[in-house]
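Lay summary. Proteins are chains of building blocks that fold into shapes, and those shapes determine what they do. In this project we predict the shape from the chain. Here is one chain we studied, written as its sequence of building blocks.
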Amino acid sequence: MKVCIIQRKGIEESPVICDLSSVLIQEGCETFLLIQAYEKDLFQTIKKMGVDVLAVQSEIGDEQWVRDMTSEIKYNFPRTPVVSFGSIPTFMQKKSNLGADFLVVGEPEIPFVSIVNYLKGTNNELINVIDMNNGEHANIQPLEFDLNSLPMPDRDIYYRRYKFLRDFPVKRFLMSRGCVLSCSFCYISALRNLLGKVKVRFKAPERVIQEVLDVKNKYRLDFVHFSDDLFPVWNKSWLEKFSSLWSKEVRLPFSIVTLSNFINDRVAELLKEAGCKFVIVGVETYDEKRRIVDLEKTSVTNSVLIGAVDSLRKKGIRTLSINIIGLPGEDLSDYFKTAEFNRTIGVDFALGSPFVPIPGTILGDKLAGHQYDSEKKKILYYVMDVFPLASKNKTFQVLSMRAHKNPILSFLFSKIGQVYSLLKLKTLYNVSFLEGFKYFMKVGTFKDRRTNLHQVA
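And here is the predicted shape, written in a compact code that computers can read:
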């Protein structure tokens, strides 16, 4: 059976899709991936492939694109089953009105296999799948299989067709799923509300090393980014083994995402020994009470953030922070206060990320149906552009805050902020300016990314 996955843009490159493809290949399927942005005639290409199943990656924020894509697929290939997977079908389910035949809820590997077997007629049981044609709502349950049991990820699903992704020196890896927190804005809390529990699972250090070396031996790889929700630095025995193996067998610089209250001098030392260049932590907002009470990041106090940044700095590891732009109850002045807070605690690079209401979360349900008007969107995107430089330079912070109402000045400050971010990311990832510029011109920027929900996409 031929399965073709359709994706919006290259910035959405997903390790979970690589896992999904490898599982389907193991089941005897032939898999393809097409990125719409880089296909001159998407539907003619699909026609030539002669696929049996079309799957659309469906992420919150891209609802209209998914509906339009599904509609066009149905028009051009009326007899081909369409599967929707990702955060939209997981959290919106039947309310999503995507027009697909099957909606995958949660992690896609096992549900996809059940769809393939269902279509083959070898098994009538759909697992964590909603059959929209028969109105059947499958029993939704946690599917927490051992990540070490997965076959090696199929990177070829991207790289055999898209050379610019294959040759880019920085590549993302996913060695865990889940998080110990249930923040009020995060998809993990929505998954827990949906499934009842979401355990933190991570691969053995040996498996992680094997996956990275597999890619290193086949493709260009100069820098590794672990894009897990939470790199398990709290597990000291795991981290010690990982650090030892990585420094001996891989010997590549890398970056991680983790929780600041797990960072201390010993953790920073182990990360340094392994070759970690920077750590990403969630600051979210300058307002400690809002972070702890409203966002339910109960352990992430200002003093904890300061301590984490300090421990990393002492070992020569840089800190990158994620900050939410557009939180309910915050306005322009709050966003710039958050920028100032990042500067105060010594963060090396602060990114602004838009607040996305996710159904099933406390904040998402409070703002159900909420839409930013065009003026609010303009401000949010402006702040995201200037935020990194504003968090490093007080003069730029003051001037950019004043300039947001002036179309010419705001355009100028946005461009200055974008160039600064590109140069900073170039330094962090050790990528040449030309390579970085060409890559982001091709795939889009971090503002365009939707697939940060690693357990469903």
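What the prediction tells us: The two ends are 22 Å apart (CA to CA).
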